[in-house]
Design brief:
9 helices, alpha/beta, 5 strands
């Protein structure tokens, strides 16, 4: 099975790429969504984070206060490192288990962050980076999340992509139809870079 990491900064459109791949029957492991599920499944996670970060992180109903946690880790690099040290080993274990259960010739991991984390080196055979201009990304996220320009820029600055690990770049600055055509060309065209791996 060929495993592809689809990555890219916030607002680049990596989730739109992965949605198109799902429509084609490709299994996709969305790291962000799965982490949210793991907070519910692994009951020790939130208390461990509260103890390590030294602050309450639960809403009155006992569930994780996602907004508070996001604000904390995007404004405090040391807090982000602490969180990653607790959450990422559990995420990697879950991801490897998911990979072993897949029967398709092609599987995709969606994540904005794991490319820059040495712990995840080797989890994918090929890396595809989805790109768009910073101005367009800011506009997309402001419209999608109702966030301020400053907040989006802070989130963008917290993301880093080691380009030496990237095999292919997919530009997403046009219409949804153009993105669909690009996904078809990059992932399924018999003359594409990826198709050689899929054939093997």
């Amino acid at each position: 099975m060929l495993t592809i990491l689809v990555t890219g900064g916030i607002g680049s459109g990596k989730s739109a790429v992965c949605a198109l791949l799902r429509e084609r029957g490709v299994p996709v492991y969305d790291c962000d969504s799965r982490v949210k599920e793991l907070y519910l499944i692994r009951k020790e996670l939130v208390p461990s984070l509260e103890e390590a970060l030294g602050c309450p992180l639960r809403l009155p109903d006992g569930t994780l206060d996602k907004a508070r946690l996001a604000s904390l880790i995007f404004s405090d690099p040391s807090a982000r490192e602490t969180l990653e040290g607790i959450v990422y080993p559990i995420l990697k274990e879950d991801l490897e288990s998911w990979k072993q259960r897949q029967k398709a010739p092609l599987a995709v991991i969606e994540s904005a962050l794991i490319l820059s984390k040495p712990m995840f080196d080797g989890v994918a055979d090929v890396v595809v980076l989805v790109e768009a201009s910073e101005q367009l990304r800011i506009q997309r996220v402001m419209e999608r999340d109702g966030a301020s320009r400053e907040e989006v820029q802070r989130r963008i600055s917290a993301q880093h992509f080691p380009l030496e690990k990237v095999n292919l770049t997919l530009v997403n600055e046009d219409t949804p139809e153009a993105l669909s055509a690009a996904v078809e060309r990059v992932f399924f065209d018999k003359n594409s870079y990826l198709y050689k791996f899929i054939e093997d």
